[in-house]
Write a structure and sequence with these properties.
Layout lengths: L2 H34 L1 H23 L6 H21 L21 E2 L2 E2 L1 H14 L5 H4 L14 E2 L4 E2 H20 L5 E6 L5 H14 L4 E5 H13 L5 H13 L2 E7 L8 H14 L3 E6 L3 H7 L2 H10 E6 L4 H7 L3
Parallel strand pairs: 5-8, 5-9, 6-7, 7-8
Antiparallel strand pairs: 1-2, 3-4
Helix pairs in contact: 1-2, 1-4, 2-3, 6-7, 10-12, 11-12
Length: 332
């Protein structure tokens, strides 16, 4: 089951629970009112018979149209009911069916289409499960600011940090356009600390999530801890382990941030290769950010990992001033 399918199933259960809870509350209110104001119970009984009486009347006297009579009678019953509720100290809508969303009546769907409330809830759940949550409210393309990047020419690259970021930004925009068209492509952001790699990862995640795709974000430490958890719990929680691995291998976009900062074991390199290779076979896009140089990946992990990244990832180098310090000095 894909992450999107898991999210959809979880949300449908939530909506079902919501409808059940509101129905129980509605029944409780009816019982309360019927006990305190018995005349309302009589009115509701009359409501239940109106349709049947009208059909019987039309069958017995087909030449006589009594619909207007019954409509007037129904309107009078509604007025009487509201008056009794008001006199009893209740709001006139106290016995109306309870819905958080009146458009879909808490089903999540209007006909065959998802209601706006359901889409919003699905997006909120996707944000939460992406491991980014409220961070994306602060870090997205709407808050991206080129003013933090230096115009000073870097002697090693013969270009400025600002120009480099403009070029990366344009290429990332193209990546997202292609991603939404189903094009398989991977990215690795590499370079010095504080040059915008993580921020740009979050911008991409925000944009992709808002278009209805599934995204998972992990720091390198979180990712390898998760893999270790699945390994040590493999016998006890077989289904949970299977679901976790399937999600890692099949989520629409996986972001591994700060690769190289994790605590390494003999299994680190095989675990990384297995994930990257499985996602490659499934044609699922991955973004990696790292402070390592590309030449260091072979030494830090393995030739297989280095080869996979060299052959299947578009590479973007980040350099220049630490923009975190720049933001502190010039917050606006």
């Amino acid at each position: 089951m894909t992450l999107k399918e898991q999210q959809l199933r979880a949300l449908l259960k939530e909506y079902d629970f919501k409808r059940t809870a509101n129905k129980n509350e509605h029944n409780r209110r009816k019982e309360e009112i019927y006990n305190k104001i018995p005349k309302i119970a009589d009115i509701d009984m009359k409501f239940s018979k109106i349709g049947l009486n009208l059909v019987r009347e039309m069958l017995q006297n087909p030449q006589t149209d009594k619909r207007q009579v019954y409509e007037d009678y129904t309107a009078k019953l509604h007025r009487d009911k509201k008056q009794l509720l008001a006199e009893g100290g209740y709001t006139i809508d106290y016995l109306e069916p309870l819905f958080e969303c009146s458009y879909c009546e808490d089903t999540g769907y209007i006909g065959q289409n998802q209601c706006q409330c359901f889409k919003k809830a699905l997006l909120s759940l996707a944000y939460k499960q992406s491991n980014l949550g409220k961070l994306l409210e602060r870090e997205n393309f709407g808050t991206f600011n080129f003013n933090y990047f230096s115009e000073e020419i870097d002697p090693q690259t013969n270009t400025s940090q600002l120009k480099n970021m403009h070029e990366i930004y344009a290429d990332v925009t193209l990546f997202m356009d292609n991603f939404k068209k189903g094009v398989y492509e991977n990215i690795i952001f590499y370079g010095s600390v504080g040059t915008g790699k993580t921020f740009l990862c979050n911008c991409i995640a925000h944009d992709i999530l808002n278009d209805g795709f599934s995204v998972l974000y992990f720091t390198s430490a979180q990712f390898f801890n998760l893999i270790n958890d699945t390994r040590f719990n493999r016998d006890e929680l077989v289904e949970d382990v299977k679901t976790t691995l399937e999600t890692l291998y099949n989520v629409d976009l996986l972001i591994l941030d700060d690769l190289g900062s994790e605590f390494k074991t003999d299994l680190t390199s095989p675990d990384l290769f297995n994930t990257l290779n499985s996602r490659h076979l499934n044609q699922k896009c991955t973004i990696i950010s790292t402070n390592l140089r590309l030449d260091d990946i072979d030494e830090e992990y393995s030739a297989r990992v280095s080869s996979r990244i060299a052959g299947n990832y578009v590479k973007f180098e980040f350099f220049g001033n630490d923009i975190r310090k720049t933001k502190t000095q010039y917050p606006h």
